[in-house]
């Protein structure tokens, strides 16, 4: 059996943004999860959300004191595209591992959902740079079925390139050049040491850049203590802004939730557990808890302190996905005959890499400086100065673009 190499790659979030109100469409989750679907991408919202939480829980088990950051949507998209070529038990196992209940949604509906979602995300608004791209690099000796290639192009907007994998250096340069371009230079030299018998590399890239509607003022960013744990304290640059935010304190799981919407249709959730309560929050983290937060948020005046930081992460996915039930595609039992017509392929490698940069947007800082510095006596203080969980969501489709936990902002 030949190997083909699957690489899942993610470019990072270049800046968070925030505004003083939550748009009307922010209340759409209840309709999506408990009412009729309005768009094809709503058909896959629950599955994608459940996969995001499953993946987070698995990674968190082995990373109690480490930063976590990944794109669940990037991983789901790449492996759903791979499902176009999967058959029999390999197909059902793959889709089930991605948290799609095949008694409630068909394979066709899944691919149609991703098709609609990719089109939606690639045209979010004039205020946000957001691209979700897929590519297939195919060895010249491999002859994929026309149906597989056409479906990859149609449903997943995949670019298709012929590659000479006999020249591994040339192949790596070709793939890395594509990734570099798609991620605006944020991910470089990702592909290294391709297996000698690689016949195909599948790549998913996501890049996002957004701006604060009312930016933090970089002139008032100051160093503060960040309490990594009960024994470790580090100095971090802490941004500050006074304004109106949607927040909720969940007494049941002991955490503070703060929502920072972007310009456009993307929102950032910051979940700040009480000291010593991170595991309690992580254990409860799931779709039901998220819906509870959606319906409990209230707007209030807040003195908000948020760390300025950047991190990068890299995950070898084989072990994680196996624990989530996706096993066949990595073994001789793989049936990927929908790619070539023969069950002679398996996945030899699956890599996910992510980059995140949170900072002030100084270009518009002066416009709101005066109001930001006048706290109201009735306002509360939310200081994100200990480990926190974050989730970046596209609100109309309810898609998790990014998810993570920042244990130490100084560890890259």
From TrEMBL:
Q: Which domain of life is it from?
A: Eukaryota
Q: Serpin domain: from which residue to which, for each copy?
A: 53-409
Q: Which Pfam families match?
A: Serpin
Ordered alphabetically, the record's keywords are:
Glycoprotein, Protease inhibitor, Serine protease inhibitor, Signal
The UniProt entry, under InterPro entries, shows:
Serpin_CS (IPR023795), Serpin_dom (IPR023796), Serpin_fam (IPR000215), Serpin_sf (IPR036186), Serpin_sf_1 (IPR042178), Serpin_sf_2 (IPR042185)
Signal peptide residues on this chain, from the entry's feature table = 1-19
Q: Which residues cross the membrane?
A: none
Report the PANTHER family cross-referenced here: ALPHA-1-ANTITRYPSIN (PTHR11461:SF165), SERINE PROTEASE INHIBITOR, SERPIN (PTHR11461)
Family statement: Belongs to the serpin family.
- The entry's protein name is Serpin domain-containing protein
**Taxonomic source organism:** Phrynosoma platyrhinos (Desert horned lizard)
């Amino acid at each position: 059996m030949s190997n083909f190499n699957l690489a899942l790659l993610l470019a990072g979030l270049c800046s968070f943004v925030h505004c003083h109100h939550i748009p009307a469409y922010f209340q759409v989750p209840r309709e999506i999860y408990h009412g009729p679907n309005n768009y094809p991408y709503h058909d896959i919202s629950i599955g994608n959300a459940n996969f995001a939480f499953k993946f987070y829980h698995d990674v968190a088990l082995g990373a109690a004191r480490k930063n976590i950051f990944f794109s669940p949507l990037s991983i789901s998209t790449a492996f759903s595209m791979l499902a176009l070529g999967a058959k029999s038990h390999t197909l059902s196992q793959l889709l089930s591992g991605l948290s799609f209940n095949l008694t409630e949604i068909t394979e066709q509906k899944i691919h149609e959902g991703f098709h609609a979602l990719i089109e939606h995300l690639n045209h979010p608004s004039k205020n946000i740079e957001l691209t979700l791209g897929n590519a297939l690099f195919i060895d010249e000796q491999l002859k994929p079925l026309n149906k597989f290639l056409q479906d990859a192009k149609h449903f997943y907007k995949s670019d298709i390139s012929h590659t000479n994998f006999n020249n591994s250096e040339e192949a790596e340069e070709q793939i890395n050049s594509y990734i570099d371009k798609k991620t605006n230079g944020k991910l470089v030299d990702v592909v290294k040491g391709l297996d000698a018998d690689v016949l195909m590399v599948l790549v998913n890239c996501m890049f996002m850049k957004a701006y604060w509607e009312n930016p933090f003022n970089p002139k008032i960013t100051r160093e503060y203590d960040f309490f990594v744990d009960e024994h470790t304290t580090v100095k971090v640059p802490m941004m500050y802004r006074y304004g109106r935010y949607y927040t909720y304190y969940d007494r049941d799981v002991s955490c503070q939730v703060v929502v920072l919407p972007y310009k456009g249709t993307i929102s950032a959730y910051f979940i700040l557990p009480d000291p010593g309560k991170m595991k309690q929050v992580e254990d409860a983290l799931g779709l039901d808890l998220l819906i509870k937060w959606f319906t409990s948020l209230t707007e209030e005046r807040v003195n908000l302190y948020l760390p300025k930081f950047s991190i990068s992460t890299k995950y070898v996915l084989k072990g994680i996905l196996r624990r989530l039930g996706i096993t066949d595609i990595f073994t001789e039992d793989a049936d990927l005959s929908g790619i070539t017509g023969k069950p002679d392929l398996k996945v030899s490698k699956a890599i996910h890499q992510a980059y995140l940069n949170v900072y002030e947007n100084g270009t518009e800082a002066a416009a709101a400086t005066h109001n930001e510095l006048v706290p109201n006596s009735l306002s509360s203080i939310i200081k994100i100065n200990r480990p926190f969980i974050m989730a970046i969501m596209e609100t109309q489709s309810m898609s998790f673009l990014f998810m993570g936990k920042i244990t130490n902002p100084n560890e890259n």
